[in-house]
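Sorry to interrupt, but I need a hand with the structure work. Please put the record directly below this note.
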Amino acid sequence: MPSALALPRRSHPVARVLAAGLETLAATEQGRLVLWLPVFLGTSVLVYFGLRAEPPSWAGAALALPASLAAWLARGWARAALVPVAAVALGFALAQSATLRALPRETLPYRAVVLTGRVAGVEILPEGRRVTVAAARLDDGTALRRRVRVRLR
């Protein structure tokens, strides 16, 4: 039976050994290759959140759609190579989508304000206390959508 990684007869011996090793690895791991998909998804999410600047909003879809389509249409070894690429692109797009859907954080003032709300917790720290306030209002404004932590000295 011909090899799936058929190499020319005059190929380098190291290339032949690597091809044989890849074939053996693929044959032994065939039923478990799907378990690598979360690794590829998670890796791309880490890459996305490690970027120094926000990419354009269309970048995730521009990566994920062609990669997924190519993986869907490919056959044989091409599919085996393109599915991880599609998983990485999809993870990037999912991370970007989650970021774009997230509510912006309210900016808190860096000046003295009157803070009212319900005390949700008190933590004792070496240099004072930290109070967590739920349903906080700043200077009789509208209630914030998140909890506010205030450090008291």
About this structure: The radius of gyration is 26 Å.
